[in-house]
Amino acid sequence: MNVNKAIVIGRLTRDPEVRTTPAGRTLTKFSVATSNKWKGQDGQMNEKTEFHNVIAWGKRGEVIGQYMQKGQEIYVEGRLETQSWDDKDSGKKMYRTEINLENFEFGAKAGGGSSQNNSNNAPQNQNVNATTPQNNAVVEEEIPTINLDEEQDEVKIEDVPF
Prior knowledge:
By secondary structure, this protein is mainly beta. The protein has one domain (6-127): CATH 2.40.50.140. It is 6% helix and 41% strand. A hairpin with a 6-residue loop joins strand 5 (73-86) and strand 6 (93-106). It is extended and about 95 Å long. The model is unreliable at 114-139 (pLDDT under 50).
């Protein structure tokens, strides 16, 4: 049995780069940083950051290019692919391993907010007009109150709003 699966949850290191191939397919490239923290034997905290290159094709790439930006968190699932080429300057064989995206989910925004959307739905909290109820805006509800200054008699239990 063979398995080629990469799962990464991290933050974009730059804004996604969206291109169109000569054949008309959309190609989006971006990089995701992940960090690992641990306490060493000396008691000092250590941290190592890895950078993962990701390629997204078609509609998934378009959505990522439209809604994601540097610093935002993303869940990426895909397969590893290694590209090779000959360096023009040195003539050496060069290699680059990338994640070919198959699925993704939006994560927390750079400012600390979060959205729980997946690749099949555009983010609903992007460009929302907060004045319209159909966009899930919070509508203030008038809460009944008892103003004791205006009441001359005792408060009746049936007047209590809760």
